[in-house]
Amino acid sequence: MARIYDDQSLNNVEFQQLRDEADRRLDALKELYPESDGLGTFQKAADDAVQQMQVGILSFKKRHLPEEAKANIQEAYAFQVAYIQACLDRFTKML
User: Fold this and answer.
1) How far apart are CA 40 and CA 26, in angstroms?
2) Rounded Cα gap, residues 86 and 1, in angstroms
3) What CA–CA distance (Å, rounded) separates 71 from 65?
4) pLDDT tens-digit map of 67-94
5) If residue 19 lies in a helix (H) or strand (E), which one and from where to where?
6) How do the pLDDT tens digits run along the chain, 95 residues long?
7) Number of helices (H), then strands (E), in the chain
8) Which of 74, 93, 70, 92 has its CA nearest to residue 82?
9) Taking the CA of residue 9 as centre, how many other CA atoms within 13 Å lie in the half-sphere pointing to its CB?
10) Inter-CA distances, 83 with 21, 28, 47, Å
11) How high is the pLDDT of residue 93?
């Protein structure tokens, strides 16, 4: 993951590689633990969240907002992602 995102920017190829790797790893877990039906649900939810993020941000892009508004939008979405990351960290500590 660090190799793909080390420059803090993803081109289209790197984006697809990251998504493919994320799916590959979750698919491997589903194969190892078929009784964990939450894995597939989470995988779909992640795809849905990314789709909704894209739709939401594109709707703002069409408005040609000032830089301050763009920064506020980026920060609001970043906090949502940080919340997900914090939950991941917290929940995996329980393993």
Assistant:
1) 8
2) 18
3) 10
4) 999 999 999 999 999 999 999 999 999 9
5) helix 12-32
6) 666 667 778 888 988 999 999 999 999 999 999 999 899 999 999 999 999 999 999 999 989 999 999 999 999 999 999 999 999 999 999 99
7) 4, 0
8) 74
9) 2
10) 22, 25, 17
11) 97
Residue with tokens 């420059």, as numbered in its chain: 7
* Short-list 55, 44, 47, CA closest to 77: 55
Q: What are the tokens at 91?
A: 């929940």
CA distance 73 to 57: 8
In one-letter notation, the amino acid at residue 93 is: K
User: What is the distance between the alpha carbons of residues 60 and 55, in angstroms, rounded to a whole number?
Assistant: 9
| Residue type at 7 in one-letter notation | D
Location of structure tokens 């799916």 = 23
